[in-house]
């Protein structure tokens, strides 16, 4: 499903624009004025600890939830007033893979292509299986897939119909290190094809590895937003030491959040596991 950009006049401007979003659940003020833009064809990471409000932002952008205040648009379509147009332009891959276990990987893909009334579902399935390195496993039941294979299949399924914008909500949470690397490859593949990707993550290294631009959501607001090198410049000038070391995003995060005197800390989740915001 491609957007006819010449007739809609949506050709310019960012892929996603978010301005002053606020959302509360009863007394809990989750979003308190969230503002950011995502450039077309870029990978944007919304980084925040558990409960920061990342899924709430994604649900608003994918028209599943109404904000209390603020505006948001996707490919120029307003999420409140043009929800159907927004839904045609996006795909959403949630934290928990939505694939059918009984079917094979290929059958899952063919099913979705049929449901979307696309021509030649078999060819679409085979192309996606090849792009996400699932050809060898194409005819096996999904119940035999590893976590990384499932998540890759999930991402492949969300690409059927070529949505220009894809939301990946914590694509690697709960995966082992090898599976995370496989999913990272899949995200890079999306970027290579020019899809705009907004991903949420609580992993600093994931944002550092994948994103062109990173926004840190903390206490309901975006407290930092920039490229990795821009975020690194927020640190005091590097000390001259015998061995020069580039600051990691983790150090940038600590410098920003730690400076507020919060109880947030960054800890290694496990000796070999990814670093996670607590
Ligand atoms: N439907 C809901 N009702 C009440 N509280 C909610 C609801 N959805 C989320 N929350 C709360 O809002 C906060 C932000 O949630 P969420 O957006 O899921 O954060 P994240 O995805 O960053 O972990 C959390 O404290 C969560 O418990
Ligand atoms: Mg979430």
From TrEMBL:
Q: GO biological process annotations for this chain's record?
A: response to antibiotic
Q: Under the cellular component aspect of Gene Ontology, which terms does the record hold?
A: plasma membrane
Q: What is its main location?
A: membrane
MF annotations from Gene Ontology: ATP binding; ATP hydrolysis activity; transferase activity
Membrane topology per record:
Peripheral membrane protein
Task: Report if keyword Translocase is assigned.
Answer: yes
Q: Which UniProt keywords apply?
A: Antibiotic resistance, ATP-binding, Cell membrane, Membrane, Nucleotide-binding, Transferase, Translocase, Transport
Q: Which residues form the ABC transporter domain?
A: 16-244
- Keyword Transport among UniProt keywords: yes
Q: Which domain of life is it from?
A: Bacteria
Signal peptide span: none
Q: Where found? A: Cell membrane
Family named by the database record: Belongs to the ABC transporter superfamily.
Spell out the protein name for this chain: Glycosyl transferase family 8
Per the UniProt record, the source organism is Micromonospora sonchi
């Amino acid at each position: 499903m491609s957007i006819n950009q010449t007739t809609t006049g949506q050709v310019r401007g960012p892929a996603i624009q978010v301005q002053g979003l606020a959302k509360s659940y009863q007394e809990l003020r989750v979003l308190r004025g969230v503002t950011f833009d995502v450039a077309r064809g870029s990978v944007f990471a919304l980084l925040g600890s558990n409960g920061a409000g990342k899924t709430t932002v994604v649900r608003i952008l994918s028209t599943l939830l109404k904000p209390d205040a603020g505006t948001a648009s996707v490919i120029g379509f307003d999420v409140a007033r043009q929800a159907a147009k927004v839904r045609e332009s996006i795909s959403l891959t949630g934290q928990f893979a939505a694939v059918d276990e009984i079917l094979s990987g290929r059958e899952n893909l063919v099913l979705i292509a049929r449901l979307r009334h696309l021509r030649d579902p078999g060819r679409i399935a085979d192309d996606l299986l090849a792009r996400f390195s699932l050809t060898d496993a194409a005819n096996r039941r999904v119940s035999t897939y590893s976590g990384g294979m499932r998540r890759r299949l999930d991402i492949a399924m969300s690409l059927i119909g070529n949505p220009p914008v894809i939301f990946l909500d914590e694509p690697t949470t709960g995966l082992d290190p090898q599976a995370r690397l496989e999913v990272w490859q899949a995200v890079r593949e999306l970027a290579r094809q020019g899809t705009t990707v907004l991903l949420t993550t609580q992993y600093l290294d994931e944002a550092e590895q994948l994103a062109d631009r990173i926004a840190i959501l903390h206490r309901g607001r975006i407290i930092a937003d920039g490229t990795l090198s821009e975020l690194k410049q927020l640190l005091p000038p590097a000390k001259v030491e015998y061995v020069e070391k580039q600051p990691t995003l983790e150090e940038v995060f600590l410098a920003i959040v730690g400076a507020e005197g919060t109880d947030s800390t960054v800890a290694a989740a496990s000796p070999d596991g990814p670093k996670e915001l607590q």
